[in-house]
Amino acid sequence: MQYIEKYWLRLWLIGIILLSMMIFLNRHIVNDITIGGIMDHQLATNAARVNEIQDSWMINGQLDMARLSMAIDLFFIAIYSMGAFGAGRVLSKKSSALYVKLGWLIMFSAAIFCLTDYAETICQNIQIWQMGGDDKMAKLAANMQIPKNIAFLISLIGIIIILFVQNFFMKKKI
């Protein structure tokens, strides 16, 4: 835990870099069937739609790029979540009640993000590597979108607030 607390910013930034890589890769897996790229796969609520998306990637020579993006996502989830959790943990140890509350909120959000994004991404990876959609996994992955995105945004905005306050208002760094 001390490593995460000491290097939270590095972990978080590496997570942001991995997210940027996935956003870049997503441009290369967009086609007539998957206008939103990976997002379409994440939102597919049934096996038929998953199969349609995966078949379009195979036909268009984009399947390996989609698989790479989903594999990177597994690393992104862990690294970003550790960085965000570490930021929250450091903040929760401060003397200010406001920092403590923000720290706990970031830690909670990082944990929820980690759990929901792994549930989604593992379901996606199983389906894409088996080249077959599964109704239950597709539905589970799609249902993770809202809690995952809310938790991600809370942790992201919380950390941006930390960095802003640290760099512009505090003499001692967090």
Describe the structure.
By secondary structure, this protein is mainly α. The protein has one domain (2-164). The chain is 80% helix and 0% strand. The protein is built from 8 helices and no strands. It has helices at 2-6, 8-26, 38-43, 47-59, 63-92, 97-130, 135-143, 145-168. The protein is elongated.
Number of strands: 0
How many structural domains are formed by the residues?
1
Mean pLDDT: 94
Question: Judging from the principal axes of the Cα atoms, what is the shape?
Answer: elongated
Can you summarize the main beta sheet?
none
Order of helices and strands: HHHHHHHH
Helix content: over 70%
In what range is the share of β-strand residues?
A: under 5%
| Structural class determined from secondary elements | mainly alpha
> What radius of gyration results from the CA coordinates?
18 Å
How many angstroms separate the termini? 17 Å
Query: In terms of per-residue confidence, which ranges show pLDDT below 50 for 5 or more consecutive residues?
Result: none
Total of DSSP H or I helical runs spanning 4+ residues: 8
Q: Helix and strand layout, with pairings?
A:
Layout: H1 2-6, H2 8-26, H3 38-43, H4 47-59, H5 63-92, H6 97-130, H7 135-143, H8 145-168
Helix pairs in contact: 2-5, 5-6, 5-8, 6-7, 6-8
Transmembrane segments: 7-25, 65-86, 98-119, 150-169
Keywords: Membrane, Transmembrane, Transmembrane helix
Q: What are its keywords?
A:
single chain, 174 residues, mainly alpha, 8 helices, elongated
Brief overview:
The protein has 174 residues and is an all-alpha fold. Helices cover 80% and strands 0% of the residues. It is built from eight helices and no strands.
